[in-house]
Amino acid sequence: MVKVLINGYGSIGKRVADAIEMQKDMEVIGVTKTRPNFEAKMAIEKGYKLYAAIPERKSLFEESGIEIEGSIFDVIEEADIVVDCTPGGVGKDNLEVYKKYNVKAILQGGEKAHYVEDNFNSLWSYDRCYGKDYIRTVSCNTTGLCRILYAINSVTEILKARVVLIRRGADPNDIKKGPINAIVPNPPTVPSHHGPDVGSVIPEFNGKIVTSAIIVPTTLMHMHSLMVETSGTTREAIIEGIEKTPRIFTVSAEEGLNSTATIIEYARDLGRNRYDLNEIPVWEESINVVDNEVFLMQAVHQESDVVPENIDCIRSMLQLVDDNMKSIEMTNKAMGLLK
Ligand code: NAD
Fold first, then answer.
1. Does this model's pTM top 0.70?
2. Which residues does ligand 1 sit against, CB inside 6 Å?
3. N or C terminus: which one in the chain shows less Cβ crowding within 10 Å?
4. Superfamily for 141-300?
5. What is the pLDDT of residues 289-317, one digit of tens each?
């Protein structure tokens, strides 16, 4: 069993911790928090050992009656790998700490691609990240794009892709962000950074993917509208490509899965913890091919699609399994994912 430390037990950190606990080849040796809030209490109730992420804050936990095991520096040397799930920008500073303690680490999508040795997606860069020390698991949007591009690429040659990303305003628990009554071009410049981010995982697509992004007042999911020029394909071939690709599947609007709201209801009905949908749903009705150009729409559950990727990334960096498809299968089975 390899030993994993989760630094930052928030939206992504708590999900990655739970997913690790479902695997047979890895365990969580501790989770860190900066504040003694309800998540800190629940981490202990779930059986995780809790550590203060910042040593000077240990007394805050003691004062609020939350029993911690110490600070991150009391456990970091026991870890085979740290999964850094701190807010975007913090991971960069933490990287220096991981290097000092000579421990491998995974950063998340909120960090810049060039801070690390390489950028991870289970389908595209498992082999490249194999045995490496410092890797970034790419963002929720980039992960969703990597999966659909893999599916399309498995049945035809991709010449160019244009993507409009319709992004959720905030996560459901985030009361500080908006918009409330606006649609915000974000970034207002085109292309957005999402295309180059896909290029950090799939260098051969650099320059071939042009993205623009807007933020809308919703919290449930992101949505992507893709237009992909190919050397030639059919609607049936694209559907087949999606069916063959792990962690992406088609949904039917006609059957009632006609919005991000009903898709989240579907995840609830599946009995998913925290109504997570780790897989990417693609609207079957939206898939069309006009003059060799593929059109389709997909949704991304921003809080959960990157979670199985983090698990595969641990296996790749610690050289636990040398075949990406084998790791994907292990992770999917343990987490009870579709297909
Ligand atoms: P979050 O704010 O929900 O959780 C971050 C956690 O880290 C919190 O518990 C916070 O208390 C803790 N923290 C803050 N400063 C810390 C420090 N110095 N050391 C240790 N812990 C600290 O954030 P999140 O949404 O889980 O995002 C984490 C990372 O994952 C970011 O890089 C983000 O861009 C990326 N990401 C987020 C989403 C999403 O939709 N939430 C999706 C994909 C990737």
1. yes
2. 7-13, 32-35, 53, 85-88, 90, 108-111, 139-140, 171, 302-303, 306
3. N
4. Dihydrodipicolinate Reductase; domain 2 (3.30.360.10)
5. 999 999 999 999 999 999 999 999 999 99
Domain ranges of the chain: 2-138+306-335, 141-300
What CA–CA distance (Å, rounded) separates 216 from 327? 35
- Tell me the angle at which helices 307-317 and 11-21 cross, rounded to the nearest 10 degrees: 60
What letter represents residue 319's amino acid?
A: Q
Over the chain, what is the mean pLDDT? 97
Residue of 30, 67, 78, 72 lying closest to 55 (CA atoms) = 72
Atom of ligand 1 nearest to the CA of 7: 20
Query: What is the rounded CA–CA span in Å between residue 90 and residue 139?
Result: 15
- Check whether 172 has a pLDDT greater than 80: yes
Determine which helix (DSSP H) or strand (DSSP E) holds 336, and give its type and residue range: none
Q: Which of 320, 1, 303, 288 is nearest to 141 (CA)?
A: 303
Contact predicate 162/227, CB 8 Å = yes
Distance in Å, CA 11 to ligand 1 centroid: 6
Supply the pLDDT for residue 178.
85
Q: What is the dihedral of CA 51, 57, 62, 63, to 10 degrees?
A: -150
Fold of the CATH domain 2-138+306-335: Rossmann fold (3.40.50)
Q: Does the annotation count 129 as an active-site position?
A: no
